[in-house]
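Subject: Interface between my chains keeps coming out wrong

I've been trying for a while to get a sensible model of this assembly. When I model each chain on its own everything looks fine, but I need the whole thing in one frame so I can look at the contacts. Pasting all components below, labels as-is. Any help appreciated, I'm running out of ideas.
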Amino acid sequence: MQLSARDVSVSFSGVHAIEAVSFEVARDEIVGLVGPNGAGKTTMINVLTGFQRPTAGRVLLAGEDVTGQSAGWFARHGVVRTFQAVRLFQRLTVQENLEAAFAGAGIGRMEARHRSAALLDYLGLAASAGREAGTLNYGDERRVGIARALALSPGFLLLDEPAAGMNIAEAEALAATIRRIHADYGCGIVLIEHNMRLVSAICDRLHVLASGRTVSRGAPAEVMADPHFREAYLGAEAVA
Amino acid sequence: MTAYAAAPHAIRPAERLSEIWRRSATLLVLIAAIALLALLAGQADAVLQRRVIFCLVNLVAVVGLYIFMGNSGVLNFSVVGFMAIGAYTSALLSMPAAMKGTFLPDLPLWLGAMQVPHMLALLTAGVVPALIALLVGFPIMRLSGIGAAIATLSLLFIAYIVLGNWDSLTGGQGSLMGLQTYVKLPVAAAVAGGAVAVAFWFQETRWGIALRASREDEVAARASGIRIPRVRLIAFVLGAFVAGVAGALFAHFQGTLRVENFYLDLTFLLMTMLVVGGSRSLTGAVAGTFAISLVTELLRQTEVGVTLPGAAVTLQTPAGLGDVALAGVMLVIILFRPNGISGGREIDEMWRRRAGRKHRKLPEERNA
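Reply #2:
Try treating it as a single job with all components included. I did that and got this:
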C-alpha cells in the first residue's frame, strides 16, 4: 500500500511552491523529506494530507485517486500529520487532546479515555495526562503532538520537523520512538527534518527538494554523496 | 504487535462505575446548588421567590447558550430568537381555545382548537426551535468569528421581525395574555437541573470533546479527523432545543407574552451571565447566572430604595443604574478576568488542580 503524489504542482498566485514533484511512501518504509528552507517540504505534506489542493497533478492512496478530498477525510483514512508549530489544543488536558483525536476517528468517549491512557503510557507521557497542554515544555509538547496523531491509527504518519528545538539526547530518543512507532503500527512515515544525522540514521530513503523541485532521491548514503544534494542543501547551509 | 492503539481495551464494570462517579462530581454539585437555591427560596417571600424562579428560567437559557457557544467558542446571538419561538410554540399549544379565540381570532382552525398537556407543549417548545436550528444551522456552521456573529445576529433579527408581524399567529406587537402560570419553584428547578444534565452529558460525549478541540484549534481539529460543521450543528440544535424550553418556561412564568421581551436586552443579559461566569465551562454558566442574578437583584432593591438598619438614611440609586452596572460588570470581567469566575474550568478540575498543587511535584520545565 502506498501514498503518493504524481507530478504535483502547487502555485500561489503564479509563484510555484512545488513544481511537478512526484513522491511516494510505502507502509514499510521511513522516508526523509529534506531540503533547505522554502524548498516546499511542508507544502508537500499539505498536499499529501488534503490541506492543500494541488494546482496540477494527483494524490493517490492505495492506487485510488484521492485528490481534492478534505483534510479530515485523509485523517479518517489513516493519513495523519503533525505540525511544525505542533498546534495542540492548548486549554484541553493532554489526555483530552488524545480523546479529541479518538473522537475524530469515531470512537466513543469511554473507550477513547482508556485508549488515550494506554497511548500516553506507550510514549512515556502518562505523568502529564492531566496537565493542560498549554503548560507543557517544548519536548513534551511535540511528543503529545505525535501521540495525538497516533490516536487516528495511522497507516501513514507525516511528521513536520518533530525534532525542531530538541537537544541531541532528546532528538536521539525521538529517533528511537519513531522507529518503534514504525514497527508497532506498521505505518509508513514521512519525516521532514533538518538534522541530517537523525534523518540518515532512521530513514530508508531520502527525497531532496530545492526551490520546489526534486533534486535528488535514493538511499541516504547515495543521496549524501550526490553533488546535487550537496549543492542544494549543504551548500546552502554552509553559506548560512 | 501491530496497530498498538487499535487494540480495544477491555473495560471492567467496576472501572466504568468509578469513572462515571468521578466524572459526575461536577454535575452533582451543580444540581445540588440548584436544589439548594430552590429550597431556600421556598422559605422566602413571594417577591423573592419570583426573582429566584426568573433566575432559574434564565439559567436554562444560559445553558442553551453555553451548549453551543461555550463548547464551540463561536459567538451565538440567536439563542433568544429560539427562546421566542419556543415561547410562542408552547403558548399556542397550551392556551385554552376560548382564550385563543379572543387574542388570536385568525389562527388556523386546527391550531385554534388544539390544547395539549403542558409537558407535551414544553417538549414541543424545544423540538420546534431545534428543527429550525437544524435547517438554518446547516449553512451557518461553516462560519467562525465575525461571520458567525453576524449570521446568528441576523437570525435573532429575523425571529424578532417575523414573530412581531405574524399577527394571525402571535398577535404581532400586542400581548398574548392568559397563559397558565404553572412555572413555580419546583418546575423551574427541575427543568434547570435537567438542562444542566443535558449540557453535561453533551460535553462528555465524543461530539463534545471534538467541538471543544475545534474551539482551541480548527486546523489541528481537521487534522484529527473532526468534522467541524457537523459537531457544531449537533450543539447548535441541542442548544436551540434547550433555549426553546427556556422560552416556554418564561412564557408560563410571566403569564403574558410580548415579542419585545425576546430581543437585545435579554440577549445581553444572557451573554453577560455566560461571560462573567466563564463561557468555557458549565460551572461557569451556572456561576455566572447566579452571580448576575444576585447583582441585578441587589441593584433593583437599591433603585427602589434601601433603608439602612439603625440609620435614618435611605439609599436610593437613580433608575437605569441596573443596566449600566450590568454592562460595567461585563467590562470589568472581560478586562481583568477574561476566563470568568470559573476560569473556564469545571468544579472537579478546580479540585484536582488544587490537590495537584499541594501534593504533586510537576516535572521540571526545560525551556518553559
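Reply #3:
Confirming on my end. The two ends of chain A are 39 Å apart (CA to CA).
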